[in-house]
Write a structure and sequence with these properties.
With about 325 residues, this protein is of the alpha/beta class. The chain is about 50% helix and about 15% strand. It contains 10 helices and 8 strands.
């Protein structure tokens, strides 16, 4: 049964996106107008840009669009807090005004035409609808391979994560209210949101090429993001260290027996190569283990301080009668 048309907010984190925002706004405005005419959403629906401490004219452009476009609203963070924190800030503000929220990136590589299918799934009773890539044709070989390995590795670690899903999703007010109860400072929303539960669905789409600007996720940031996901949702790396310790201890014991036997049956002097190789191996392995444990301790340190995940500097809204506080 179709629900009455709901208020939709499209939340878009922005970091140095002045090149794409005009085109993004134009396309989303056309899409929202079309969905309003089809009675999928109501006329109070909005586009909410979240400026994540951009160094270019992104916030100035958002303010101009807010004045000229009836759908555009904006949130300005006090400084750059990272994509996940900026996205969370937008979601938490939007849930006070919207019935449903769709999150996506500013470059519109996520197909906006899939929004209709997401709302259809919502009308069927789903609280969370994931946008899932059907293929990775637009990615480079390196990015495609590493991304697929990441999802498989996360699954192997026991993390409940939706394969080939980024942050293109629909969430209801109820789901967002439950998301607010998760207090992690080290955010990895792709792992947190499946923990909410409720009825979920997936819609497939093909990701488009970026039409302007450059990616704000270079290799360094992607590796950091992947590490956050692994350390925030699995303790298996520490268990693997323990298992490796047992295996290496066993092999060391076998090697010790070999050395003792060799001492009595041979007059050969023990080679320096073997000694140096073993020292380098065990030294490197110990440093690696200490590094992994240190990463976990660092995450614990960040969580115990409970510093705010974001600080809002400015909010641009449109209609005061839309407020549901």
């Amino acid at each position: 049964m179709k629900k009455s048309s709901s208020c939709l907010y499209v939340v878009i984190p922005c970091y140095n996106e002045e090149e794409v925002l005009p085109v993004t706004t134009e396309k989303l405005t056309e899409k929202i107008n079309k969905m309003i005419k089809e009675d999928l959403i109501n006329k109070n629906s909005k586009i909410m840009y979240v400026n994540d401490g951009s160094k270019d004219k992104t916030w100035a452009l958002i303010k101009e669009l807010n004045k000229s476009n009836k759908y555009v609203t904006g949130v300005n963070l006090s400084k750059n807090r990272g994509h996940q924190n900026a996205l969370l800030a937008g979601l938490m503000i939007a849930k006070e005004y919207a019935d449903i929220v769709i999150s996506m990136d500013a470059d519109l590589q996520d197909d906006i035409n899939v929004m209709d299918k997401m709302i259809e799934k919502y009308n069927e009773g789903c609280d969370i609808v994931y946008g899932v890539r059907s293929a990775r044709k637009t990615d480079t070989f390196f990015k495609r391979t590493t991304a697929e390995l990441f999802y498989k590795f996360m699954a192997a670690l026991g993390v409940d994560i939706v394969y080939n899903h980024a942050d293109y999703r629909l969430m209801t007010k109820r789901a967002l209210t439950e998301l607010e109860n998760f207090k992690e400072v080290n955010l990895f929303l792709r792992g947190i949101i499946p923990l909410i539960g409720f009825d979920t669905a997936k819609v497939e789409y093909e990701r488009n090429e970026r039409f302007a600007g450059v990616s704000k996720y270079p290799l360094k940031k992607m590796l950091s993001f992947a590490l956050d996901g692994i350390l925030s949702f699995s303790i298996k790396p520490i268990r693997l260290i323990t298992l490796s310790g047992f295996i290496i201890s066993f092999l060391s014991f076998i090697f010790l027996i070999y050395v003792i036997i060799g001492h009595f049956i041979s007059n050969n002097v023990t080679g320096w190569t073997t000694i140096v190789s073993l020292i380098c191996f065990f030294g490197g392995f110990q440093i690696l283990c200490i590094g992994i444990i240190g990463e976990y301790i660092g995450k614990i340190y960040s969580e115990t301080k409970q510093r705010p995940r974001y600080i809002i500097k400015d909010i641009l809204l449109k209609e005061k009668e839309n407020v549901k506080k």
